[in-house]
Amino acid sequence: LSSRWLVIAVGLVRAYLAKGSYHSLYYSIEKPLKFFQTGALLEEYLLIAKYLPGIVPSSVVLTAFQVMSRVFLTWAVTHSVKEVQTEDSVLLFVVAWTITEIIRYSFYTFSLLNHLPYLIKWARYTLFIVLYPMGVSGELLTIYAALPFVRQSGLYSISLPNKYNFSFDYYTFLILVMISYIPIFPQLYFHMLHQRRKVLSHTEEHKKSE
Amino acid sequence: FVSYQVEILDWKTKKQLCFLDKVEPNATIREIRLMFHKLYPRWYPARQSIKLDPKGKSLRDEEILQHLPVGTTATLYFKDLGPQIGWTTVFLIEYTGPLFIYFLFYFRMPFVYGLDERFTSSPHPVVNLACICHSFHYIKRLIETVFVHRFSHGTMPLRNIVKNCLYYWGFAAWLAYYINHPLYTPPSYGKKQINFAVIMFLLCEAGNFSIHVVLSDLRRNGSKTRKIPYPTKNPFTWLFFFVSCPNYTYEVGTWISFTVMTQCVPVGLFTLLCFIQMTIWAKDKHCTYLREFKDYPSLRMPIIPFLL
């Protein structure tokens, strides 16, 4: 589970060393990133629906949201708008996602094996404090960078008149997506902070009572 | 003659909110709600959820105290359902919105398509027809709300009205925008497509109305109990042979017709969402019927004959 993210992480490091610059980074991780992100969708639902209700107290809706946003960023933004692939913001969110996912899947794996090292639990519920904002910044900057190119090329947009009487402006849509981060991100963030307090203090009590 | 004592506790804190002495054994929950309301004026009866178990279902108004599994000192739990609004009121607001919002677009108010297009009218007859059909649909719904429907629950939570109105009003605006747009393109198959769609639309509206009348007649004497609806002499009601909720079937049919009539993707999307929502409601209703009636007709499916 976490091995696939290790693959990306190793690929990251290798590419950086080999090419000396992280701008061509995207090309080396592109295929695994896309493959794994899309695979993540299926996997998330499988995991959540089947194995984890008893083990992990995370909200299905929030996780689904997270996976959706990642698939969106990977396919609908970074893949579709070639010009943003050399942006630093892409590196920012890929790094944030990679570290988060390695920890998260280690957490799930160890939980399933009923042998969860405190370090993993701590890492999962603490590192997000930095990684979430990092990932969100990377995502927002990437979308923002894509805007002028979308406007110029009319990507994924339909205008009237047409025989289906429908119009869609991808540019406006992206702006709305960016705005939606304002109500959604704090909710996710505070949810994780709340989980942190609950989970880590619970462990403290456990330790004290032993 | 044994008189009961009723204590009502808060469902969460278990704090005693009131203690009613000398309650008659044949008192109904409705009467208890009224007594509770006298002590706590801001919690009117519709807001009160009174239950036997803190996490259980709310007791109905008609339940009688001595028929409940309680001793002569009954412990009941109270939960505040929040501000409530009557179903009739909700429907009236929900349906009046789309009616007038559509007109804003049909008459091309200046703020909609810009000053150059203000108050102009479309060269396509289908646009006028669509306005008539859309308005007819919502006027029919309003009339039914006032004269036909008999609701089993009196109220729903107030916050629902915001959610529901956003949905109905929002979609009405969205689809009206495209249908009445200066750049609207009429259906590809022209008059044939439009006429076919209009006929289907009228048939489905008639069907939907017939079903509503049948359902309303089941509760003619003001009772709130559920009965199995059956087909009548009206051919539109014969759909009851195949389906538990033909009113939803006809409703979806109406919107499909409207989609075909206008050939407009937003209308199609709205139709799809309506279909999903109504399928969920129909399945629910169907399951309730199956649970409550052992002799429920086995040929019936929830919303689509033989399929769904």
Morphology of chain B? elongated
* Proportion of residues in helical segments of chain A: over 70%
Strand order of the largest sheet of chain B: 2-1-4-3
Q: Give the structural class of chain B.
A: alpha+beta
Tell me about the largest β-sheet of chain A. none
The unreliable regions of chain A are 15-24, 51-57
Number of strands of chain B: 6
Average pLDDT value of chain B?
A: 90
| Total strand segments of chain A | 0
Describe this structure as you would to a colleague.
Chain B: Pathway: Lipid metabolism; fatty acid biosynthesis; Sphingolipid metabolism; Lipid metabolism; sphingolipid metabolism. Chain B: It comes from Burhinus bistriatus. Chain B: This is Very-long-chain enoyl-CoA reductase. Chain B: Its EC number is 1.3.1.93. The complex is a heterodimer of chains A (210) and B (308). Chain A has 210 residues and is mostly helical. Chain A has helices at residues 3-19, 25-51, 60-79, 88-112, 118-126, 128-153, 170-209. Helix content of chain A is 78%, strand content 0%. In chain A, α4 crosses α6. The two termini of chain A are 32 Å apart. In chain B, the strands form two sheets. In chain B, strands 2-1-4-3 form a four-stranded mixed β-sheet, covered by helices on one side. A two-stranded antiparallel ribbon of chain B has the order 5-6. Chain B has two domains: 4-82, Ubiquitin-like (UB roll), CATH 3.10.20; 85-292, no CATH class. Helices cover 49% and strands 11% of the residues of chain B. The model of chain B has no long low-confidence stretch (mean pLDDT 90). Chain B has helices at residues 29-39, 87-106, 110-113, 125-147, 159-179, 190-217, 246-262, 265-292; strands spanning 4-10, 16-23, 48-51, 73-80, 84-86, 155-157. The chains are: A mainly alpha (210), B alpha+beta (308).
